[in-house]
């Protein structure tokens, strides 16, 4: 079984999701995405695994940086948004748990149970 979590230890939902996994005796590969940001190929894969129609759906839209960068501009294409996430990984919604080719955003943490 392949299991990983894109984790930010400073985020309460990320910590809660990791604790939920560990309470089920699951030891995911922990990817601290702020230290090791995902590349564009990985982000494309995550969009697909999450079943999202747009990169925006895995971005933190309420983050001040999202507004500062004017990311709600409909002229920005998916490739533009992917590059923004590579350059600004703090905009990635968190946590994301991936298991065997499926992914879920842990907001709330219980959402990840659907793929376990």
Structural features, described:
This protein is of the alpha+beta class. It has one domain (3-115): Glutaredoxin, CATH 3.40.30. It is built from four helices and four strands, in the order E-H-E-H-H-H-E-E. The protein has helices at residues 12-23, 40-50, 64-68, 78-87; strands at residues 3-7, 29-32, 96-99, 102-105. Strands 2-1-3-4 form a four-stranded mixed β-sheet. The longest helix is centred in the first third of the chain and has 12 residues, at 12-23. It is globular and about 45 Å long. The N and C termini lie close together (10 Å). The relative contact order is 0.24. The model has no long low-confidence stretch (mean pLDDT 97).
Question: What key attributes describe this structure?
Answer:
116 residues; alpha+beta; Glutaredoxin; 4 helices; Arsenate_reductase-like
Rg calculated over all Cα atoms: 14 Å
Structural class: alpha+beta
Return the CATH architecture: 3-Layer(aba) Sandwich
User: What is the CATH superfamily?
Assistant: Glutaredoxin
Mean pLDDT metric? 97
Overall geometry: globular
Estimated helix fraction: 25-40%
- The number of helical elements comes to 4
Q: Note the quaternary state here.
A: single chain
Task: Please describe the biggest sheet, giving its number of strands, its sense, and whether it closes into a barrel.
Answer: 4 strands, mixed
| Strand line-up of the largest beta sheet | 2-1-3-4
Order of helices and strands: EHEHHHEE
Report how far the terminal alpha carbons are from each other. 10 Å
Level-1 CATH class name: Alpha Beta
Here the CATH topology equals: Glutaredoxin
Spans of at least 5 consecutive residues whose pLDDT stays below 50 are none
Compute the number of structural domains: 1
Protein name: Arsenate reductase
Catalytic activity: [glutaredoxin]-dithiol + arsenate + glutathione + H(+) = glutathionyl-S-S-[glutaredoxin] + arsenite + H2O
GO molecular function: arsenate reductase (glutaredoxin) activity
EC number: 1.20.4.1
């Amino acid at each position: 079984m392949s299991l990983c979590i894109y984790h930010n230890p400073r985020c309460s939902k990320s910590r809660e999701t990791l604790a939920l996994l560990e309470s089920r005796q699951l030891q995911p590969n922990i990817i601290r995405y702020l230290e090791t940001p995902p590349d564009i190929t990985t982000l494309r894969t995550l969009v697909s695994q999450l079943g999202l129609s747009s990169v925006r759906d895995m971005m933190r839209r309420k983050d001040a940086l999202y507004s500062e960068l004017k990311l709600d501009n409909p002229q920005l294409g998916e490739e533009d948004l992917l590059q923004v996430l590579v350059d600004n990984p703090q905009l990635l919604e968190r946590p994301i748990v991936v298991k065997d080719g499926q992914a879920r955003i842990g907001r709330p943490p219980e959402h990840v149970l659907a793929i376990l």
